């Protein structure tokens, strides 16, 4: 039986970084990934460009991790987003910042990030086994025995579980880590979809493909300001994904397209525009054309009507609608089709300084398998890479 100091299960961002951390301190390390290639889900983030972290300060990062972000204080005090940026810079993969602090490789190619992680693992002598699935993990005495689908057995004094959540199972994240937790009587919290697009009762066909920047979205008592996208099923884009966290049943959400002005101020502003032009032209700078036509239709204003002929009452109605645009949401996507899994290995069982189980010494959990979920924008990957490093180096 081959023996290693550390066996890492799962070759996503958390598992690759855990392997780097472990081998960096001279521990013999093997990474086992069931896919042919490493980082399959990671390659899909940021529209295929790999949104590897976010340049926000730590308080903002934690705010953007609505699922137990505060648990990560200790992790981030050891390895944070700036360490991630420096790690890639030092390994020949500079990053660039885009809107909302999102960080991407300057190449705009996710393979650059994945290759940087693979090169580092190779440089440090990590044994990488792909196309092999871990089928069981047992503990005898101080050692773990890890069995794989090719009927091999490996022994290790510690095992790092980096198997991800349960979304997009075609990427390999099928919840095996939760099974390991169950096997060792480590409690799990319920798995739920998070960062999910929103399905509407009546998707707005006329607005399909429309994307609006920095819209204020109100869902219950929560307010989110981010970009939103109208799709054939309903809504997507970061604002919709964030809102999904708060949607458990059919709910109305409200868009405010003019957060910086109240209704009266908005009408007053519109009355300074060219009053002889058709309203659809005089308000052109305020709305995208299809949005304006859609809203005018709801309020019952004929688009060709000159602005001066539109009653103040109707303008008030239009302003009210633009600031309180009600959209009926039926539900979120299923867990499998959402971006992130909420719930997972219960954090009470995990030492926040090391990511080691409190009840099973030598067994560590990192990344999305934990009961931690973040907004898209690089925050999940930040959590995955940082927890991976901390578990690996401990
Ligand atoms: C479409 C999409 C877009 C996203 N966009 C963003 C974004 O913009 N920003 C952001 O922060 N997050 C984003 N995410 C979320 C982010 O990708 C994940 O949170 C992150 O990849 C989790 O990393 P991980 O290492 O914990 O798990 P994963 O990346 O899921 O990796 C787990 C790995 O474990 C392997 N594995 C599982 N079981 C076994 C086994 N038994 N044996 C061997 N290997 C096994 C799997 O094959 C997989 O490769 C997105 C997710 C999706 C699906």
Automatic annotation (TrEMBL):
Its cofactor is FAD. SUPFAM superfamilies: FAD/NAD(P)-binding domain (SSF51905), HI0933 insert domain-like (SSF160996). Gene3D superfamilies: FAD/NAD(P)-binding domain (3.50.50.60), HI0933 insert domain-like (1.10.8.260), Translation factors (2.40.30.10). The keyword Ribonucleoprotein does not apply. InterPro entries: BaiN-like (IPR004792), BaiN-like_dom_sf (IPR023166), FAD/NAD-bd_sf (IPR036188), RsdA/BaiN/AoA(So)-like_dom (IPR055178), RsdA/BaiN/AoA(So)_Rossmann (IPR057661). Residues 192-340 form the RsdA/BaiN/AoA(So)-like insert domain. Keywords: FAD, Flavoprotein. Residues 5-393 form the RsdA/BaiN/AoA(So)-like Rossmann fold-like domain. The keyword Calcium does not apply. It comes from the Bacteria. PANTHER family: OS12G0638800 PROTEIN. This is Flavoprotein.
